[in-house]
Amino acid sequence: MAGVIQEIINYLTNPELISPSFFSAWQVLRLIFIYISIILGALIIFLLSVNGYIDARYKANLEEFTKVKPYRNFKVNINWVEITKAVKEGKEADRRLAVIEADDAVNSALGQLGYQGNNLLEKLERINKDIIPNIEDLKRAHKIKRDVVYDPSRGLSHEEAREMIAIYEKTFQDLQLL
Fold it and tell me: What predicted TM-score, i.e. pTM, was given to this entire model?
């Protein structure tokens, strides 16, 4: 069987059996199809780049590979300078608000990174300690934040607020968002 197939291939590819006029027409036709293929390939690449597919599919991977910072399609809406200023200089109400904003920003950032959960604690349960090394401190800070929100009589000292903001800042640095 293999011998028969080999004989057919040899017969079809034998240049002595092909007429010179057909062979020259075949060469011209072949060049035309090669040019058409190149043009269509370039057109496909152009259209994929125009509609953003190449950016979404490959540019992010290339950027993550070549740079230290991961490719992100979002920005955390937080003014970290004002939060740290409110913790250092503000009254207790300002400190409470700064801690709440920082906690909400971490929750929002984790949601945008794709971690599922209804609140920050649920999201933190799904995160590995390799991603956020201070995850236990973050859980503790979130519990203090919940106490501050739900218990108006609970005070928040300068030291406690500074420690919590430092924990949130470390989390943002671990996620490479600050």
Answer: 0.60
